[in-house]
Every structure is written in C-alpha cells, then in structure tokens.
C-alpha cells in the first residue's frame, strides 16, 4: 500500500467514490424518472464504449446501433416466442450480434475510413427497416409490445430482487454494464489491444511482421458487436416494448450521437466515451424543454469540442494537469532561486 | 535449390504492365540488388515477393514451396521480413514498443495471456523486453528505447525499421531503398550492418536501390530492371560494363548519383 504514489491513490479513491455513488443512487435519487434516465445512460455508455473499441483498429462504425437492434429484438423474441429465460436470452442475443458482426466484418473491414462508415450506416438502417416492416416477427410499424422483465431472483442474504421495478432493473443494468466495461478494458490493455493499436498505426507493417490483420480486426469488431447486442437486450427488457420507426433509438441519429459522445469525452482514453455519454445524456435530460433543438445543440457542441478541445473532456483535463505540473515546476525553481 | 525462386513473374495493373516475366533466383547468404530507374517496377517486384500484391502470372517459390498466393503475414511466418520505403513505423509507439510489435511471431497470444495476462502484460513480459533490447543494442539504438518513433531523426528511423524486421529472426530480408535520404556516414553504417547480417547471421538480402554506386560494393549479384523487364543480371563489374544497362539506366555520367 505504502509504495503507491499519489496519482494511484487518487484513482482508487475516485473509483471507489464513483462506485459508491452509482450503487447508492436509487435510494438517494428515489425518483423513478431519474433512475430510468440513469439506466438508459448506462446503456448508452456501453454502446459508446464498445463503439470506441472498433476505433482502436482504426475504423469508425456508424452502424453500431444496428447491432443493438439485433440484440434487442433477438432477446425479446427469444424470451417471448422461444421461452428462453432472460439471462440466457441476454447472452444469446449478444452472440447473435457478434456473429452477424463477424459475417459482415469479413467484407466490410477490408475498406477503411468513409467507405466503412457508409457500409455500416447502411447496414444499420437496413436492419431498422426490416424490423419496421416485418409485421410477422417484430410487429412491424406497431412495434413489439409486452416484453416481460426478467424473473425475480433470490439471493441468500439480500432477499428477493424483483426486476420488474425500476430500482431492481437499475441494479441489473449496473452489474451487466460494469462487467462488460471491465472485459472491454481488459482486452484493450492486453496483448490483443496492443495488436489492435499496431494495426491502426501501420496496417501494412503489422501484416509484414506476421500479424493476421483480418483475423484481429474481425475479433475486435465481433466483440464490439457482442456488447452492442447485450446493450440492446438490456434496453428491450427495460422498455418492455420496441419500435423501429424513424424517430426511435434505432435511427441513424443515435449512431451519430454515440460518435459525438466519444469525441466529446475523449477518444484516446477508455473512460472517454463513458464520460461523454454520461455528461451529454445528463445535459440532454436537463435540456428537456428544448427538445426540438437537441440535435442542433449536440451538433454544435461536437463542432466546438473538435475545434477547441480535440482530445475531448479527458484530453482537456490532461492538458490542465500538464500545465499545472509545469507551473509547480516553475514555482519550485523560483523557490530555490529566491 | 535456391532459397527464393521467381519464375516468370508478371504484374498488370489494368493496362499497365508493371513487371513482365521476371525470372530470378536468390541463393542462401546472397545479397542481391534489384536496380533500375524510377518506374522500372522494382517496388512492384518487391511487393509481390513480400505478399502485398498478388501476381497476375508466374510463381514464387520459397525453399521449394509455392508461396505465390500467400498473404504477407504467412510469408512473415516463413521467414520473409521487409524494411519498407519511407520509414514505415508504428510512429506513436516508442522505439521499444516498435520492436515488441515486431516480435509478434514470438509472442504468446493464448486466451490465458489475453484475458489474465495482467495489466499491460505485453509491456511487462521480461523475456520479450530483453529480446527487444538486445536487438536494439546490436543496432546501436538502445539508448533511445523510450523515445517515440516519430521523434527520431531519419537515419535512426531507418535503423529502427531494420530492427523491427529483424525481430522475428528472418531468413530473407527485403530492403526497399534502405539508404535513401542518408548522409555518407549513415550510408556506410547501414551498408556495414547489412553485410554483417549476412556474414554473422546468414540472412539473405534483396535490396532495391537506384543508387548503383552505393550497392555495387555490397551486392554479390545485381539484376537490372527497365520498364518492367529484366535487362541484365550479373556481378557488379559485369553490370557496370553492360551496354544495355548503360544505355537504359546509367546514361551519361551526370545521371549517376
């Protein structure tokens, strides 16, 4: 314990404090509306974080929401039509999204930049249109109603946790999101993440030193889509109803918002999309009265951040820390001289 | 059996014939130069040997095995390494990280290592780090190990490219214009390094250059390309006296850099 430096201690305190805050939120907030907001925010956080994982291999996916759709409808249908229990449906929905990601990634990941973005964008819109029109499976324009919430589970010591209440579902979401973020973080910091960054940095060189670039890209994309599917399943069983019309969460606009969350929070750090999603979701909530102007505000904010703080919020904080440490050095030097 | 046999290699880009029926044998421990004026097809040939381009026609055999349609990461696994033109590096990685990346083929990528390898396991794997440091030391750039690759001067970046290529212990090294943009001293160092690689480690080299004078002393054999075709092949002294080469490439005295 004693040989940890100050910054490590600050980080540990910070995380513990944050964790405590999140765990204690429902009773503190004790307002169903705001707890729901927190649930949705967490889902957005997982979406933004998994979308950023794709950024690690140098591709921007504007179709991430399509994989959330797959997970949402997949899980709902598995529970409603095939009688799956929720926890199985959740995992299977994730794998469904992941497998589709694998299949589509094989052709898509061969192209970069704007071409990849367009391909993914069109794919997610296609998924949405299929869901919107397939009356037999997804209820078409009427949407899919009556998705049951997960069955209550009883934990010895804690009693029965009922997930049909907002509070119960909040804790379910918290656990799933935290586990997912931990896995994503681990992968990023592992040897796998190192290969991903090498591929983003210099794909031709990585290939020449023996990295099977296509394979590593596919793994990354599939993992990201898996977690998008998980986020979708959580969404479905929370909302208890899904719709895929043009103004729903599954529209193109959400994918763009996710990109903005990443940029505003800071794309260079793992916590970036988390901060960005949280801050912007909260801002949107507080700006409810101005709802029609929301796209404009988000867009404007994105432009401001890109021009003034390209590293996003976290990049900016990093800059401040750097300047502060330089100021401290100056003072020390003056102190010695003086 | 030659280490590398190139048979009738042809590459067409639409209507442009970049390489036409190239035949070349490269034997173990040879240093072969591939020279020619700009646009002669040297880089295309190297790209095909390295696996970046798929030939339109022809075959490439490595130790008798047909590797024509293998992608470059498979070729890397078979001992072919490449130093790219224009100092292609992992620019935002440190010098040490660059070599660590080059050690991919020597890195355990099992599931256990990925999920439970610990915080930035790759960077803490002492075996890999020691391997990287010894490579950097043998090339004389170990002191810059924590410097970002993009902050290195041009000559040192070239040496780093060489270090990355040497990391997996290749048998065949493809050098794409290794001495471009270097001053006289750096050129000497690089040429000596390449010679040492062959003499001490038995690595076979194929070098692309348009500076004939510089590689004349280094190469055992030289093949001259012009407009996609091989117009001459032989030792440096034979090449220099070859009239076809002189006409196509050397031209007047002023053209020899």
Q: How many strands, what sense, and barrel or not for the largest sheet of chain A?
A: 2 strands, antiparallel
As residue ranges, the low-confidence spans of chain A are: none
Mean pLDDT of chain B: 86
* CATH homologous superfamily placement of the largest domain in chain B: P-loop containing nucleotide triphosphate hydrolases
Outline of the structure:
By secondary structure, chain A is mainly alpha-helical. Chain A has a domain at 31-250.
Structure write-up:
The complex is a heterodimer of chains A (338) and B (257). Chain A has a domain at 31-250. In chain A, 75% of the residues lie in helices and 3% in strands. With 338 residues, chain A is an all-alpha fold. In chain A, helix 3 (64-82) crosses helix 10 (213-239). Chain A has a two-stranded antiparallel ribbon. Chain A has a two-stranded antiparallel sheet with strand order 2-3. Chain A has helices at residues 6-29, 32-55, 64-82, 86-108, 113-133, 135-138, 166-189, 191-201, 203-208, 213-239, 252-265, 271-286, 294-308, 312-337; strands at residues 144-145, 153-155, 159-161, 241-242. Chain A is built from 14 helices and four strands. Chain B is α/β, with parallel strands linked by helices and 257 residues long. Chain B has two domains: 1-79 and 170-257, 3-Layer(aba) Sandwich (Rossmann fold), CATH 3.40.50; 94-167, no CATH class. Chain B contains eleven helices and ten strands. Chain B has helices spanning 42-50, 72-77, 95-102, 111-116, 121-124, 126-139, 154-166, 184-201, 212-216, 236-241, 243-250; strands at residues 4-13, 16-26, 31-35, 57-62, 65-66, 80-83, 172-176, 204-209, 221-226, 229-234. Chain B has a six-stranded mixed sheet, sandwiched between helices. A four-stranded antiparallel sheet of chain B has the order 2-1-4-5, covered by helices on one side. In chain B, a hairpin with a 2-residue loop joins strand 9 (221-226) and strand 10 (229-234). In chain B, helix 3 (95-102) runs parallel beside helix 7 (154-166). Chain B is globular and about 60 Å long. The interface between A and B is medium-sized, with 22 and 38 residues.
């Amino acid at each position: 314990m004693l040989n940890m430096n100050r910054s490590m201690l600050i980080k540990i305190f910070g995380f513990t404090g944050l964790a405590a805050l999140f765990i204690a939120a429902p009773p503190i907030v004790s307002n169903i509306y705001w707890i729901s907001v927190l649930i949705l925010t967490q889902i957005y956080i997982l979406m933004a974080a998994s979308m950023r994982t794709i950024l690690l291999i140098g591709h921007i996916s504007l179709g991430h929401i399509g994989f959330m759709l797959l997970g949402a409808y997949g899980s709902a249908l598995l529970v409603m039509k095939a009688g799956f229990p929720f926890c199985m449906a959740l995992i299977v929905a994730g794998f469904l999204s992941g497998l589709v990601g694998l299949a589509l990634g094989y052709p898509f990941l061969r192209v970069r930049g704007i071409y990849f973005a367009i391909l993914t964008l069109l794919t997610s819109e296609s998924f949405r249109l299929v869901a919107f029109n397939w009356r037999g499976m997804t209820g078409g324009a009427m949407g899919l109603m009556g998705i049951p919430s997960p069955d209550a589970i009883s934990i010895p010591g804690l009693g029965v946790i009922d997930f049909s209440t907002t509070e119960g579902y909040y804790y379910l979401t918290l656990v799933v999101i935290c586990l997912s973020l931990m896995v994503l973080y681990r992968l990023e910091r592992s040897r796998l993440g190192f290969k991903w960054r090498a591929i983003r940095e210099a794909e031709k060189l990585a290939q020449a030193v023996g990295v099977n670039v296509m394979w590593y890209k596919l793994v990354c994309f599939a993992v990201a889509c898996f977690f998008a599917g998980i986020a979708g399943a959580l969404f479905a069983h929370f909302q208890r109803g899904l719709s895929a019309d043009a103004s729903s969460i599954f529209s193109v606009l959400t994918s763009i918002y996710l990109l903005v969350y990443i940029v505003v929070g800071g794309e260079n750090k793992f916590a970036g999309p988390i901060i960005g999603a949280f801050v912007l979701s909260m801002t949107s909530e507080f700006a409810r009265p101005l709802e029609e102007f929301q796209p404009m505000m988000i867009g404007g904010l994105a432009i401001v951040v890109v021009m003034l703080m390209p590293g996003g919020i976290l990049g900016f904080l990093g800059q401040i820390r750097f300047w502060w440490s330089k100021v401290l050095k100056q003072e020390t030097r003056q102190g010695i001289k003086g | 059996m030659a280490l590398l046999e190139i048979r009738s290699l042809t590459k067409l880009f639409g209507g442009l014939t970049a390489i036409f029926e190239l035949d070349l044998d490269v034997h173990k421990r040879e240093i072969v130069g591939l020279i020619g004026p700009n646009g002669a097809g040297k880089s295309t040939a190297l790209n095909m040997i390295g696996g970046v381009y798929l030939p339109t026609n022809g075959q490439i055999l490595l130790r008798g095995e047909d590797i024509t349609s293998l992608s470059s990461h498979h070729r890397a696994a078979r001992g072919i390494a490449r130093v790219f033109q224009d100092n292609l590096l992992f620019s935002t990685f440190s010098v040490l990280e660059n070599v660590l990346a080059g050690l991919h083929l020597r890195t355990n990528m099992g599931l256990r290592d990925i999920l439970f390898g610990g915080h930035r396991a790759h960077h803490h794997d002492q075996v890999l780090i020691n391997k990287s440091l010894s490579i950097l030391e043998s090339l004389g750039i170990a002191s810059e190990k924590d410097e970002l690759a993009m902050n290195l001067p041009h000559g040192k970046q070239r040496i780093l490219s060489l270090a990355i290529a040497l990391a997996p212990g290749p048998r065949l090294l493809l050098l794409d214009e290794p001495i471009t943009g270097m001053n006289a001293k750096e050129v000497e160092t690089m040429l000596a390094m390449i010679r040492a690689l062959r003499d001490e480690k038995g690595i076979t080299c194929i070098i692309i250059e348009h500076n004939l004078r510089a590689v004349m002393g280094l190469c055992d054999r030289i093949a001259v390309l012009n407009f996609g075709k091989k117009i001459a092949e032989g030792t440096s002294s034979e090449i220099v006296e070859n009239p076809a080469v002189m006409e196509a490439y050397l031209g007047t005295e002023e053209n020899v850099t």
